[in-house]
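#struct-help
A.M.: can someone run this one for me? Single chain, 108 residues.
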Amino acid sequence: MSQHVMEVGEASFKAEVLNASQPVLVDFWAPWCGPCRMVAPVVDALAQEMAGKVKFAKVNVDDNQNLAQQYGVMSIPALLIFKGGQVVNQHIGALPKPALKSLLEKSL
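D.P.: on it. Structure tokens below:
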């Protein structure tokens, strides 16, 4: 995890994601998930590039099953973009950097 991507869980999700003043990309992942490990460097790179415009967070679904269930995460990686406490966009599966950046920009 980079300094630009925070780990959030059930205790911090409301404060860090739902009450955030800027859009938040939440990466629902697990350590055993191959595609999750593939998308992690893309998320890290965009977190550096878009710092100040978008917050980036990761939720380990093994440790936070209630959050995964609450947001209907059935497959990982699941990338959900929150704005004003609501999911405004989402994608299931790994994405190349240009595609993920485009998805984020549409949500700004």
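A.M.: thanks! The helical segments are 13-18, 34-49, 65-70, 97-107.
D.P.: also worth noting: The chain has a mean pLDDT of 95.
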